[in-house]
Amino acid sequence: MGDQPALKVGIVVFPGSNCDRDAQHAAQLAGAETQLLWHETPDLGGSDAVILPGGFAHGDYLRAGAIARFSPIMGPVREFAARGGLVLGICNGFQVLTEAGLLPGVLRRNATLRFEHRWVTLAVENRDTPFTRLVPQGKTLHMPIAHGEGNYWLPDDRLDALERSGQVVFRYTSPEGNPNGSARNIAGVTDERGRVCGLMPHPERASEELLGSDDGMLLIRSLVESMAKIEAAA
Amino acid sequence: METYRFSVSIMPRDGILDPAGKAVEAALPQLHADNVHEVRVGRRIELSVQAASVDAALETVDSLAADFLANPLIERWEISPL
Which positions ≥6 away from A78 have C-beta within 8 Å? Predict the structure, then answer.
């Protein structure tokens, strides 16, 4: 019983990822083992959850995330997600997941015409997900953003469907409000099963009070706890 | 097999916000080009395809455009022979 291997979070490293170590640090703070997975790795090394970190995968050429979708590791990520594995995409990772079709929608250029890097406040619209289960009711989250393409969009009828199914998990809220023109202030969504999540703000950059906030750890700890529950149920 | 060369012009769909176009348009008054409006910025990709016929080559480019070169949710594209 005591010999159970610790649960492992795999963090994908694309050429151009730059938040991989931060994500690793946050996952370790949450008590998980971690492994960095180079994007050419043919499997997930037995990871129990996967994070696609922020950065500029493959230089964001063509569109952010468009080329990363073809990295060899995305095959195993896709299979893992299809089996119900937990996948969290942060910022560029969110963009990769939408381009890969693992999450609905598209992240357009910011309506402000600028790269936006600042602190935002998030309302958590769905606390019944593996990524938000530890967020206290009514709590808003203070986290930084840093992106040029975070302006979420889908046609209105599809947004309605997304809202009805509880897939809109994070929304920008006051006092800072919507930083990028995102439709319906959306900052993060899940897939239909709630096992794949993407958000533009950076929970790993809000992992310690010293950094200005540790609210991001609520998401990372939720992920690690959910991973243990899913493992126990398997 | 023949080699066919095409250009693929990719533009934001009508009604889809185009921040790059807006940024360019915002600079125009500096050039006293106040009579220029509705600037849209897209991109153009040129490529060569080896195929048995021009139709087969076109089909390849169109499926590439739909699946990769453009994001059909927000962009449209036009393929022209070069």
Answer: A100, A102
Closest CA relative to residue A32, chosen from A182, A213, A221: A221
Calpha distance B37→B35 (Å, rounded)? 7
Q: Average pLDDT of A193-200?
A: 98
Question: Which amino acid appears at position B75 of this protein?
Answer: E
What pLDDT was estimated at residue A57?
94
Q: How far apart are CA A203 and CA A76, in angstroms?
A: 24
User: Quick one: pLDDT at residue B15?
Assistant: 86
3-state SS class at A224: helix
The terminus-to-terminus CA distance of chain A in angstroms comes to 16
What residue of A is the nearest CA neighbor of B23?
A113
Scanning B1-82, the segments in alpha helix (DSSP H) are 19-27, 54-64
Query: Stretch B35-40: mean pLDDT, rounded?
Result: 93
Contacts of B26 (CB under 8 A, 6+ apart): none
Structure confidence by residue, pLDDT tens digits, A122-152 = 999 999 999 999 999 999 999 999 999 999 9
Question: Burial level of A78, CB count in 10 A (0-12/13-18/19+)?
Answer: middle
Write out the two tokens for A31: 């008590």
A34's CB contacts (< 8 A; 6+ apart) are A8, A9, A10, A11, A24, A27, A28
Type of residue numbered A61: Y
- Residue A1, pLDDT score: 44
B69 contacts chain A (CB < 8 A): yes
Cα–Cα distance between A52 and A97 in angstroms, integer? 8
A window 29-68, beta carbon within 8 A of B:
62-63, 66
- pLDDT attached to residue B59: 97
Residue pLDDT, tens place only, A33-66: 999 999 999 999 999 999 999 999 999 999 999 9
Q: Peptide bond before B72: cis, by omega within 30 degrees of 0?
A: no
Coil, strand, or helix at residue A130?
A: coil
CB contact under 8 A, A111 and B17: yes
